[in-house]
Amino acid sequence: MTVRIVDLSVDIYHGAPNFAWDPKCAVIVHNTTDTIGYNMTQISMSTHQGTHLDAPFHFLDDGKTVDQLDLHKCVGKAILVDLTYKKPKEAIEVEDFAPYEDKITEGSKVIYRTDWFKQLPARHYFTDFPYMTIELAEWLADRKVGLIGMDVPTPNPTDYDPVHKILLGAEIVIVEGLANLGDIASDDFYFAAAPLKIIGRDGAPIRAFAMVGI
């Protein structure tokens, strides 16, 4: 059996775009083969740069930090929800998940595709994307899913506080900023999004990928 790997991560580079209030992404040459015999780079960026993962501590002071996450939530079989028909600034509602609801059960890893990542690096990538409603966040929390992933930079640009608190309060791992979901070509696949083990903090960049054919 041949397993196909699909890279689901956006690029990290000096000056890579992010939210206006986030730390700027800096990728700086520190040493080179000419100076000391080997190349080394200094990186400075947000824990929520590009393709990344939110831990409950991101919005909840008593929530689990990224190093405390159960990695079983971050790796395993996933369900792909096709929402490519959604327009900019259009609500993503419970009804949009109805065709998949039989598969969305306790512990499920659910990824939704809008193809919005194609708007990068334009600034409207961070403002005009289709957004998750509070009602959908509550529906996912009620179903006790383990992970919700998306190819937009955050679930909701205006109601980000209640939406994050509903999801993270239910200990749902949030994966944001995915890419290339259209290359999976299957509703079911194996998903991997393990975070950096940053002690006591709110999130981490990830190298997310899909394995198709397992």
Automatic annotation (TrEMBL):
Lineage, highest ranks first: Bacteria, Bacillati, Bacillota, Bacilli, Bacillales
Top-level taxon of origin: Bacteria
Name of this chain's protein: Cyclase family protein
SUPFAM superfamilies: Putative cyclase
Presence of the UniProt keyword Hydrolase in the record: yes
GO MF annotations, alphabetized: hydrolase activity
InterPro entries hit by this protein: KFase/CYL (IPR007325), KFase_sf (IPR037175)
Pfam assignment, any one: Cyclase
Alphabetized UniProt keyword annotations: Hydrolase
The keyword Cell cycle is annotated on this UniProt entry: no
EC number(s) reported in the record: 3.5.-.-
